[in-house]
Design a protein that fits this description.
The chain has 350 residues and is of the alpha+beta class. It is 12% helix and 26% strand. The protein has five helices and 16 strands. Strands 2, 3, 4, 6, 7, 9, 11, 12, 13 and 16 form a ten-stranded mixed sheet that branches. It has a three-stranded mixed sheet with strand order 5-1-8. Strands 10-14-15 form a three-stranded antiparallel sheet, with no helix packed on it.
């Protein structure tokens, strides 16, 4: 993946064109031959490339490695055992077009490192595309890096990563396509609802008759765009729906009726110690066309520039799948967000 970023950076830095100058005096403009108008050419298609990953598996690898004491930095790099053990091999990736309500291009399959490339997606500035991971693929079983406990395998649900991809560049690189498993966060939510009196399976969470929208937010600490350290003590406020907070312990820790196969559990705390909030929007006639989500940091720490923050976002409910947002928060001393515009090859809104 870091190779992809380096290549994209190189491509983004190249420009084509030849300049010339002349000392001759240009002729007067003709009324018969109008002056030519220069129009900036826009690419008709864009190549989108990125990685398919299992955020639950990445977190568990980091936790098994010792958490903050882990000698392996928690970066999404294709040389990192933490990432390679969380890459979803064989994941099926497609760009979802909200205008068509359908894929904008043929799907592709991720390789053994979770890397994929959509070679030709129709280019446009707005509205953006959203990357979708279909319920395919699996984690590697090969020994990679230090000996760590195996991540419990499970299936995946159709997952849309709630990060806009604006194809204003000919190459979009380092795009993430998250995949949420059937044995992790969503299983914990289903168990919580069942114990609370509403029998629920993971499949029910993607059934339009039951839920108009299910959105999993995982908030991460500020830093490098590839850094993935959970932002504990954070939560989400939603203009509609029920917000649940998620905690974790190693698999097998009781209570089994509430804890998922991978160790996740719904907590009664007012915020998540892992930065994970799940928003459930039940189906019904009163489902709003758009839901507003606000990011809340419940902690204050001047040394860490907390409270961290991020601008509120709005998104329409989409039934039949799960939305995932891996959001990296901003420091409190960055009142207008991170300094400088994002590189064009990241294909984010400018």
């Amino acid at each position: 993946m870091n190779r992809t970023i380096r290549i994209a950076t190189l491509l983004g830095g190249l420009s084509l064109g030849v300049g010339c100058a002349s000392e001759e005096i240009a002729p007067a403009e003709s009324d018969f031959f109008p002056a030519p108008q220069i129009v900036q050419a826009q690419p008709k298609t864009t190549m989108i490339s990125g990685y398919a990953w299992d955020p639950e598996a990445f977190f568990m690898n980091l936790a098994f490695c010792g958490g903050p004491a882990c000698p392996i930095p928690p970066f999404l790099l294709d040389t990192s055992p933490l990432y390679l053990r969380a890459a979803v091999q064989g994941a099926t990736i497609l760009p979802f077009d909200p205008v068509l309500g359908a894929p904008a291009a043929e799907p592709v399959v991720a390789n053994d490192s979770g890397l994929w490339t959509l070679p030709s997606v129709p280019s446009r500035d707005n509205p953006p595309y959203f990357l979708t991971a279909l319920p395919t693929g699996s984690l590697t079983t090969a020994p990679i890096g230090p000996p760590l406990p195996a991540i419990p395998q499970g299936g995946y649900v159709p997952t849309v990563t709630l990060r806009p991809v604006v194809t204003h560049n000919s190459v979009c690189a380092a795009m993430e396509a998250g995949g949420l498993s059937t044995v992790g966060i969503l299983e914990a939510v289903a168990k919580h609802l069942t114990v609370a009196g509403t029998p629920t399976t993971v499949q029910d969470l993607t059934t339009p008759a039951r839920y108009a929208n299910v959105l999993v937010f995982w908030l991460f600490q500020p830093g490098s765009p590839l850094l993935r350290v959970p932002a504990g003590g954070t939560t989400i406020e939603a203009s509609a729906g029920q917000v649940l907070h998620i905690d974790w312990a190693p698999p097998g820790v009781p209570p089994p009726e509430l804890r998922s196969t991978r160790g996740f559990i719904v907590t009664d705390a007012e915020s998540s110690p892992l930065g994970i909030s799940v928003v459930l929007l039940p189906a019904g006639a009163d489902v709003p066309p758009v839901v507003r989500y606000s990011f809340i940091d419940t902690q204050t720490d001047e040394a860490l520039s907390r409270p961290w923050w991020f601008p509120p976002i709005e998104a329409p409910p989409v039934p039949g799948l799960v939305n995932f947002s891996g959001t990296q928060l901003w420091r409190s001393d960055e009142p207008n967000g991170p300094p400088g515009p994002p590189p064009p090859w990241l294909c984010l809104p400018q």
